[in-house]
């Protein structure tokens, strides 16, 4: 396993939910963490935790964040894309605004963070990318087809990172959970206590970040209930 001490991780979505648990876990285990966030909330910056304003929908945001992280820490070894949204985007509703928002936030924003960090991930020689997709990126099981399409696209993005980055030592993983008990699932018709916990998803993220180049996991499906084909 890779030694995380001194390695630098960029993370989006660190203000809440899964991203916050990943941030906590990495911060507590030797990583230098740079969080791209809109609102710091209760997060407090420190010598090994940098907070930088990042909005998934703002042009130039990823480039500015990567530049500031390089100025502060001098290297980037990992990108964790956890920011995401799930407004309802239906097949038969002609209003496509939710579809467009999910394409911008769930797909194009992680692509831009990866693109901005790319030369530094290459320089690392052991660059890592973890993208939060979803079981909704593996099959269609409810009416929010816009969310599913965006999460299928995140799987495609992850596969392209693996293809293009492999010879440079970059390894990428799409993490695909079912229900996770965060604000995103507050309205879900599924018992909260039976959902996956964000801290358990964070433990999986940390594990794949630490696997060596010779033991890469491209996709992790995380179930909180039985599904025959997953
Ligand atoms: N919860 C689940 O059941 C579940 C299952 C499978 C996959 N996922 C995926 O896992 C990831 C994390 O989900 P979660 O459950 O932790 O969600 P969450 O609790 O709703 O948190 C969403 C995170 O995304 C950030 N975000 C949203 N829009 C943003 C924007 N325009 N710019 C910057 N940051 C933005 C939020 O920041 P603010 O605090 O600034 O709003 C927040 O940190 C998402 O990609 C989600 O699709 C979740």
Features:
230 residues, alpha/beta, Rossmann fold, seven-stranded parallel beta sheet, 7 strands, 37% helix, 16% strand, globular, binds NADP nicotinamide-adenine-dinucleotide phosphate, oxidoreductase
Report on the structure:
Keywords: Oxidoreductase. This is SDR family NAD(P)-dependent oxidoreductase. It comes from Falsiroseomonas tokyonensis. Belongs to the short-chain dehydrogenases/reductases (SDR) family. This protein is an alpha/beta fold and 230 residues long. The protein has one domain (8-222): Rossmann fold (3-Layer(aba) Sandwich). The chain contains five helices and seven strands, in the order βαββαβαβαβαβ. It has helices spanning 17-27, 61-73, 97-124, 145-165, 198-210; strands at 8-12, 32-37, 49-53, 78-81, 128-132, 171-177, 219-222. Strands 3-2-1-4-5-6-7 form a seven-stranded parallel beta sheet, with helices on both faces. β1, α1 and β2 form a beta-alpha-beta unit. α1 (17-27) packs across α5 and α3 runs parallel beside α4. The longest helix has 28 residues, at 97-124. The structure holds NADP nicotinamide-adenine-dinucleotide phosphate.
Please trace the helix and strand order, writing H or E for each element.
EHEEHEHEHEHE
Quick one: biggest sheet?
Answer: 7 strands, parallel
Rounded to the nearest angstrom, the distance between the terminal CA atoms is 28 Å
Number of domains: 1
């Amino acid at each position: 396993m890779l030694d995380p001490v001194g390695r630098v991780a960029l993370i989006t979505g660190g203000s809440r939910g899964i991203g916050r648990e990943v941030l906590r876990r990495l911060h507590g285990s030797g990583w230098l963490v740079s969080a791209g966030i809109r609102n710091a909330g209760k997060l407090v910056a420190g010598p090994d935790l940098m907070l930088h304003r990042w909005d998934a929908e703002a042009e130039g945001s990823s480039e500015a964040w990567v530049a500031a992280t390089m100025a502060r820490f001098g290297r980037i070894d990992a990108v964790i894309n956890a920011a995401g949204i799930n407004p309802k985007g239906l097949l038969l509703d002609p209003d496509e605004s939710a579809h467009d928002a999910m394409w911008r936030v769930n797909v194009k924003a992680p692509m831009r963070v990866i693109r901005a960090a790319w030369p530094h991930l290459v320089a690392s020689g052991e660059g890592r990318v973890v993208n939060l997709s979803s079981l909704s990126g593996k099959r269609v099981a409810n009416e929010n087809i816009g969310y599913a399409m965006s999460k299928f696209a995140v799987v495609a993005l992850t596969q392209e990172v693996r293809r293009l980055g492999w010879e440079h030592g970059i390894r990428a993983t799409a993490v695909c959970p079912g229900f996770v008990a965060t604000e995103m699932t507050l309205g879900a018709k599924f018992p909260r206590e039976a959902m996956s916990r964000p801290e358990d998803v964070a433990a999986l993220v940390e594990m794949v970040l630490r696997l060596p180049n010779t033991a890469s996991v491209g996709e992790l499906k995380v179930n909180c209930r039985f599904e025959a084909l997953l």
